[in-house]
Amino acid sequence: xxxxxxxxxxxxxxxxxxxxxxxxxxxxxxxxxxxxxxxxxxxxxxxxxxxxxxxxxxxxxxxxxxxxxxxxxxxxxxxxxxxxxxxxxxxxxxxxxxxxxxxxxxxxxxxxxxxxxxxxxxxxxxxxxxxxxxxxxxxxxxxxxxxxxxxxxxxxxxxxxxxxxxxxxxxxxxxxxxxxxxxxxxxxxxxxxxxxxxxxxxxxxxxxxxxxxxxxxxxxxxxxxxxxxxxxxxxxxxxxxxxxxxxxxxxxxxxxxxxxxxxxxxxxxxxxxxxxxxxxxxxxxxxxxxxxxxxxxxxxxxxxxxxxxxxxxxxxxxx
Length: 319
Ligand code: F6P
Description:
By secondary structure, the chain is of the alpha/beta class. The protein contains eleven helices and eleven strands. The strands form two sheets. A seven-stranded mixed β-sheet has the order 3-2-1-4-5-10-11, with helices on both faces. A four-stranded parallel β-sheet has the order 7-8-6-9, sandwiched between helices. 6-O-phosphono-beta-D-fructofuranose binds near residues 127 and 170.
């Protein structure tokens, strides 16, 4: 192994830069040359690359987004695109590739691995919807960003005796929503993993009012329902007036938390170690605080369950 490439792909996540920095420096430390591929698979197809040096990845550990930029490439999803990408990797004289991203990125990495190219995936997504790792890079920061917003909304909700609905991201999973709900002390959380029962929610809201609650916060995962639809349903079902906030892409930005910068540094380093040991077609993970590696398909073939303990705690704490 002499020369490796690094790319970030799919939705950006805070901590991606810390992973790029760690992988670059660990690779250089072990005598490798490193090339950064810009704009994910899209940039790979166009050979849009920059050399990465110890200095060029300086001053980025704390920066949100990704200095390599990112894209969701439609071209690469097609078999012809994947053949073309392999040609580009060979032209660039690369012996291995580290890919930071979520499920889509890992599926792309798997396609390259199946064609014989050495790859290691590093899980970076605010959704935390990747099995094989307790947490993904960016999740902790997104939870804290959303939490900060929800705490501010709680202030105004309590001043005005209002009902607030806050929609958080997460694609088809409720990790972000349930973590934000528990940490913010929200009364209710709607997640895609559990069918939404609006009538039951209205009943709970009614009982809460009767027991003296003057305001309530509902966190809804985008994959469960939109906050606007939920507000309309609450109005239709029980006449409740709710204020709606959709947090949106603000959840993807900002400096990584200490947790994410650390996780990203460890995973970036672990990916280089794995490539040097001749491992390929794998993803790095963190289980019980230890760095581990699994075959890439674990990411999409295994379902990472939401914590029952967290959900039932939400129920108990919302009285
Ligand atoms: O996967 C990260 C994520 O932010 C999801 O939570 C969200 O559903 C999606 O990306 C939004 O994608 P885009 O930035 O392409 O609109």
